[in-house]
Design a protein that fits this description.
about 90 residues, alpha/beta, 2 helices, globular
Length: about 90
């Protein structure tokens, strides 16, 4: 399995996008606690992506008041449609 976790890092959406373009074989991707409201375009180009974790962690004091995720219901639907073979945790 090729796994990448970019949880709670001080990265912009553009920096995440640029990073993912160099890692096209990612199968499991963690993008938790990043404040994203939309996914970087490169996520949709990860043809081997099997699991995507977008649910914010709230188990540590640092993340205690974090919402479950930052994606609207419409955006969640769009993400599911754009990544049909991928298991997504919102």
């Amino acid at each position: 399995m090729k796994v990448l976790a970019l949880n709670a890092l001080p990265l912009s959406r553009l920096e995440i996008d640029e990073t993912l373009r160099y890692l096209p074989e990612i199968e499991i991707l963690y993008l938790r606690n990043l404040g994203l409201t939309t996914l970087p375009p490169a996520v949709y180009e990860l043809k081997q992506l099997k699991k995507l974790f977008l649910r914010n962690r709230n188990d540590l004091n640092v993340f205690k008041n974090a919402p479950p995720n930052n994606f609207s219901a419409d955006e969640q639907t769009r993400i599911r449609q754009m990544l049909p073979g991928c298991e997504i945790e919102f």
